[in-house]
Amino acid sequence: VTGHGTTAVGVTDQGSVNNLAYNGSFGDITVSAAWAMSAEGGQGSGVLVYDNLLDGLSIGYGYGEDQESAANKLKTEMSTAFVKYTAGPAVIGYQQGESTGGKAGADGAASNGYGIAFNVNENLSLSYQTYEIDHLKTAGNADTNTEFDAIGAAYTMGAAKVTLNSSEQSGNSTSTTYNEERTEIALSLNF
What we know:
The protein has strands at residues 19-26, 29-38, 41-50, 57-67, 75-87, 90-101, 108-119, 124-136, 144-157, 160-170, 179-189. The chain has 191 residues and is mostly beta strands. 16% of the residues are buried. The chain is built from no helices and eleven strands.
């Protein structure tokens, strides 16, 4: 939520041109809002995050809209919400979002996902996340689904850090048969 995202998973970012933005923190509450005007119309978004609602619990909500053009008044609305809980070495989070509206024939999307990260000790951390996006097609077109699953591990020893990330995606906005797997191993050295 705090970094906005893409239309499919939440509130879109506003960019850096013709932009009016506000970011502020008030104790445990963080607020960000942005509005941009262009020849095609206007865009606006807002994000509210409340950290430490209870000990270790954070919640957030974001809303945005993107007007296609000043002339036709069609707009896409996006929203997203999350909850995150930290307990000792573990962090668990859940997020969901949706987008609707837009020009005739535009698709909508609904998404949800969760993740967990665990610091085994000061050197080793493990994580898992899964995310699903339902691409809601217009009448006469079949809905599609995208699923992401990922695991990660990181080990730090002195100035060296080794990370392993493995992810799998099945489906996308245009195909239910699309599949992709990625594995990444990285070594970072700090001098």
